[in-house]
Specification:
Aspartate Aminotransferase, domain 1, Aspartate Aminotransferase, domain 2, 2 domains, 7-stranded mixed β-sheet, 4-stranded mixed β-sheet, about 45% helix, binds pyridoxal-5'-phosphate
Length: about 375
Amino acid sequence: MTLREWSEWAQRETDAIHESGRWRAPRSFDASGPQGTLTESGASVISFASNDYLGLTQHPDVINAAHTALDRWGAGSGSARLIVGSRPVHEELEEALAQWRNAESAVLFPTGFAANLGVFGALASKGTLICSDELNHASIIDGTRLSPADVSIFPHKDLSALGKFLAERGERRAIVVSDTVFSMDGDIADVDDLRAICHEHSALLVLDEAHAALGPHISPERDDEIIRVGTLSKAVGVVGGFVAGPRIFTDLLINRARSYIFTTAPSPADTAAAVASIGIIQSSEGDELRAELRRNIEILRPGHPSPIIPIMCGTESRALEASAALLKRGMLVPAIRPPTVAPGTSRLRVALSASHTTKHVESLRDALIELGLS
Ligand SMILES: Cc1ncc(COP(=O)(O)O)c(C=O)c1O
């Protein structure tokens, strides 16, 4: 292929995405909380799209911790953790994460995505079977695909299908992986049942708790069969990812996970901000923020278990129209379409935060009723 043919190929691919109506581009949102201005149009909007579930991106103690770390260690860490990128604050964060997740140990990654890429490459080998829920996040899908393991996808939350895969796996080692809160549906995994089935079949359980701002709660006793993956970029309000679990596994990740080894350590400022944030999450202020978030969920969908509320629209055009109609009313709620979700299940994805006011959420509820979408 000549370079000219390469450009022509890229043009054809681009045209195809445009023709399918699925072309996307980032839009600049000038905001420091849910309320802000869309730079391009100048429109003032309330966003219901951020995963800043507890509003901690804006907490003064979190911001101050980042400032202090910037002054002490500078902007970047300059190297991978295993070379000279580790600062005392990285260890401080890993200790805080282990304590928060009630695990023996925790290891920090640059993002939650990188954590999932690292886990499966490090823990699975040829002759391992990974059983993965069909609605697991893209980073889990990619992590399992990058590993040399066999991957079996079980229908969403179908534990009898999972049990069958495990029972029929022969001599292969097995890993079961599930989101605890599913990112596009906001429903929750049956964590206790997953634990029981993994226990019964001696399978290692990997739980991704990226969206578990309100649970499900993983019971406090330490359990050698659970590897907990998390992100620092949603409820924690900063950026980063981690894996918490028994030290024998986290030590192995440090030595084998390529997305830990071959990348620059997270910046000291982000790391220190996450330490401050986790302190708040575990304090009585954290309880109040969760109660605030719960109150906001009750306004929109009483009893719903998570801050992610899907508003089903069906077709892509209906989801896009609904999103545009809300934007006209000053509310930013993204339309989620294939390939992110299955065809025919396009939706609005509402993400609520403790930083939304009651009025913000009531306005959204009323607008959805008006649009016939409640
Ligand atoms: C379930 C799940 N896991 C992992 C990630 C990735 O986390 P991060 O944004 O920190 O890379 C996401 C992010 O959307 C997610 O929804």
